[in-house]
Amino acid sequence: MSDATEANGTVGAAEAAGSGQPGADADGRHVRVVLVDDHRMFRTGVQAEIGQTAETGVEVVGEAADVDQAVAVITATRPEVVLLDVHLPGGGGVEVLRRCAALTADAERPVRFLALSVSDAAEDVIGVIRGGARGYVTKTITGTDLIDSIFRVQEGDAVFSPRLAGFVLDAFASTDAPPVDEDLDRLTQREREVLRLIARGYAYKEIAKQLFISVKTVESHVSAVLRKLQLSNRHELTRWATARRLV
Questions:
Q1: Which residue of 42, 156, 187, 195 is surrounded by the most CB atoms within 10 Å?
Q2: CATH number for the domain including 192?
Q3: In this structure, what are the phi and psi dihedrals at residue 221, rounded to the nearest 5 degrees?
Q4: pLDDT tens for residues 144-159?
Q5: Which of residues 173, 196, 224 is at a domain's end?
Q6: Sign of CA pseudo-dihedral 22, 23, 28, 32
């Protein structure tokens, strides 16, 4: 079954279930959540960890694997919280936030976003927070802590993994906005991720395994990065990334 079919099917099931009384945890809490991540096995694992509504109070009402699916599912289900991966086909988590800005700003029924990503890069954290997310946690988080973070975001709190909070404080406490890097802005989120791994010395096969993509796809991303940055080889790319503290 394709991810698109899964996403649409989950919406249908959520709408059908909407006529009944929602579950709640022992404290009477309940939150409706949409999972957005391009790895189906990860979504399945998160749902198994947090989606036992009677125990956790978390009701997973939809899933999506790319930007277009995410916008469609979020619009259809209007969850209280969206768990959003940063790197997605179709433009990344920032694009989802941009296209759902009206839902985020809704004073009566706001849809709040909590980034859940493998990336702990400062530019990723700052990018989605500027885009409107209420928090950012990494995929090393425990199920219990993730559930707590979801409820805190539902209540309007800002939630960050401890190390990532420093990035946000540094970025927003400064009176001087960080300069725009036009070269870096030319790269997609996935290209930036490949760039960082290349600069850290990873081989193509290692990058492919870590990002769950093919070696050929890695090669294509590296070629695109070199072309966009007008660099000639891996050595120049590593030096470029190091100079910008992306490694």
A1: 195
A2: 1.10.10.10
A3: -65, -40
A4: 999 999 999 999 898 9
A5: 173
A6: negative
